[in-house]
Amino acid sequence: MSLSSEEARPRLIQGNEACAEGAVAAGCRFYAGYPITPSSEIAEVLSYRLPAVGGTFIQMEDEIASLGAVIGASLAGVKAMTATSGPGFSLMQEHIGFACMAEVPCVIVNVMRGGPSTGLPTHPSQGDVQQARWGTHGDHPIIALTPWSVRECFQLTVRAFNLSEKYRTPVILLMDEVVGHMRENVLLPEAGSLEVLERVKPNVPPEWYIPYEDTPFGVPPMASFGEGYRYHVTGLTHDVRGFPTLREDEIEPFMDRLFRKIWTHLEDIQSWETHAMEDAEICIVAYGSVARAAKRAVVEARAQGKKVGLLRLVTIWPFCRRALESVLERCTVIIVPEMNLGQISREVKRVVQGRARVLTVSKALGRLLTPREILEPLGEVRT
Amino acid sequence: MNGERRLIYQYLRHDKKFPHVWCPGCGNGIVLGSLIRTVHKLGLSKDEVVLVSGIGCAGRLPVYVDFNTLHTTHGRALTFATGIKLAKPELKVIVIMGDGDATAIGGNHLIHAARRNVDLTAIIVNNNIYGMTGGQSSPTTPHGLRASTSPYGHAEHAFDISRLVEAAGASLVARGTIYHVNLLDKLLEKATQKVGFAVVEVISHCPTHFGKLNLLGGPVDSMRWMSEHAVPVERARKMKAEELQGKFRIGVLVEREMPDYQSEYERVRHRAMEGVPYRIDPQEISKMLESHQIY
C-alpha cells in the first residue's frame, strides 16, 4: 500500500474498509467474491483498489465459485482472499476443507449476521463461531481471528494473511456486523512498519521436491504452479508426493502433521488481551464487538466495587486455553456474553471443568449486548 | 504404435502407483492420449500446462500425467481454473470434466466461465451417466433410458452440452468422439490454441454401467454406434434436416472472435492505474446499451 506522508493521517473509515486496506497492505492481489450484506463494502473497496496495484478482482457466480477461484489463484502463487456473510460462509465450507486438506493459504472473511438461514440481514450476530471451527466435514485444524475495532480489522487482516502463508492453511477472519459497519477515526500503519510474511518456497531442484514432506516446522515449502515443480494437488487424502492414498501408514502421518503444524505453534497463533485482570475475581470472557460492551461493563462493575476484569479473545480458534487457565488461578466466576446461544461458553465450560462458575449471557436477537445485560447474572452472585 | 507408446510414456508420471482406476474399455484413456499428443504437437512445456479436474472418472485423469495437476471438488474445476488463469495468465490451463461434473453440479460455473470468456480449454467427456458412483442418471442421460437411479426409464430430458455453452458465450465449441480419434486430436489442438473459453465435448461411453443397463453391448458396440451416428459438420451442412434425424454433428460447431476476460480486465487495470475517476462518454453509454442485444 502506498502511504505517503501526506496520506498518513487519521481516516474515518468502516471496519470493512479497514479490512480491505489491510488485505492490500498484506500483499493480497486477488479477490473473488459474491455480494452479501454486511460484507459487500470489502468487495467494493477491493474492486477499486486491486486493479490499481496490478491485482485482480472478480465477482463470481456464487460463494462456492469465489473460494474455488481464491484457492486457484493461491496455487498460482498470488495471495488471495474472499469475504462473505453467514449464508455465503455455509456455501464455502467444502472449499475451506479443500484448502485445509491441500494446504493452500487463503483468507476468508465472514462478517457475521444473524442466522440460521437468511436470518437477520444487516443485524449483528456471532452465530458462526462454531461453524468456523467445524463447518467443513472431517477432522481438521483451523485458525480464526475476531477483531473488535476498525483498527484491528486492518491489523488482523494482515495477520490472517501472515498466519495463512506461514502455516499453509485457510484463516478465517470472523468479523461481526457491528465491527464491519462501525466507523472509527484510525491512523492506518505505515506500509513499511508492517510485518508481512511470504510463503516459504522450495530451495531444492524440482526432482528433489516432495510437496507434502514433513519438516521440523511441520509446514512443507510450497511451489507455485508454473515454477518448474510439477506436482499433484488433490482433496483426496494423499501421500507425501500428493498422490491419493488409502494406506494407513500414509494416512496417519499426514493427518498427524496437519494438526501438529497448528498445535505446536499455538504461542505464535494465539493472542488475547486482558483489561483490569490484575486483581479481578470475576472475569468476563468476550470477543468481537461484544468485548467493547464488556469493557464498559468492567468500568461500571468496578464503580460498584465489584472486582471484574475482561479477557478478550483475539484468536478464537484454536481456543485460547492457556489464557483461560491463568484466569482460573484467581477468578471463581466467569461471565461469557455473546451474540449467539452459547457457542464459546461451551468451550469455556469444557476448559473450566467446574473449577469456576460459568455464567452465560447468550442472546441472538440481532443487536449488540449492553453492559447492563452483561452484568445481569452478577445479581445472583454473592461477591 | 511403438512411437506412440514412447510419447505417452514421456508424459506419464512414473512415481504414481499405477494401475489407473478406469474400467476396461473406458474412453478416458483415449481422451488422455489425445490430450498428450496435443500438448506434444503444440510444443507446450510440461511446466506451463496446468491440468485441472473435478470429481468423477474423468476427474482422475490429471493424476497420471506429469503437468501441474489439480484435482478439485465436484463440479468446481472451472472456478479453480479461473483463479489460476487470472493470477498467472502465462499458464496454459486445461480443464477436464465429466457430464455430471460439468453440467449438473458444475452447470452454473460452466455457463459463467463461458459468459466471461475466460481463456480456458474445457474438455467435457460425456458418457451420459455417473460412472464412478455406480451408473446414476446425469443431465445428459437420454429420456426414457435406464440408469441406476432411473430404473423405470429416465423421466427427464437431456442437455445438449454444445448448444448450452454456445448460448452462454463460449468462443469455440467443438464436439468429437472417442471413436474419431484423429478428429479429436485436431479439435483439442484447435481448442487449446484458441484464446477465450473453448469447449470440446467428447462423446464417450460407459460400458460398465450405461451400456450394461441399456443393453448396448461392449465398448466396441458403442464405438460402432458412434461411427454410424456421428456426422462431420462439413457434411451435415449439405444434408437435409430429415437426413440428420437421430444423428449428431462432430467437428468445430462454433467459432467466434471475442476478446477474452483477461484482455478486458487489462483495460480495467489500466483505467485503475491512471488514478483519475472513470467517466463514460454519454454517447458511448447509449452505444453500449444498444450492443447489449436481447432477443
Report on the architecture of this protein.
By secondary structure, chain A is an alpha/beta fold. Chain A is built from 13 helices and 16 strands. In chain A, the strands form three sheets. In chain A, strands 2, 3, 4, 5, 6, 7, 8 and 14 form an eight-stranded mixed beta sheet that branches. Chain A has a five-stranded mixed beta sheet with strand order 11-13-12-15-16, with helices on both faces. A two-stranded antiparallel sheet of chain A has the order 1-9. In chain A, strand 12 (282-286), helix 10 and strand 13 form a beta-alpha-beta unit. Chain A is globular. The model of chain A is unreliable at 1-5 (pLDDT under 50). Chain B has 295 residues and is an alpha/beta fold. Helix content of chain B is 41%, strand content 17%. Chain B has twelve helices and ten strands. In chain B, the strands form two sheets. Chain B has an eight-stranded mixed beta sheet with strand order 2-1-3-4-8-7-10-9, with helices on both faces. In chain B, strands 5-6 form a two-stranded antiparallel ribbon. In chain B, strand 5 and strand 6 (136-137) form a beta hairpin. In chain B, helix 2 packs across helix 7, helix 4 (99-105) crosses helix 5 (107-116) and helix 5 (107-116) packs across helix 6. The longest helix of chain B has 14 residues, at 28-41. Chain B is globular. The model of chain B has no long low-confidence stretch (mean pLDDT 95). The interface between A and B is large, with 46 and 42 residues.
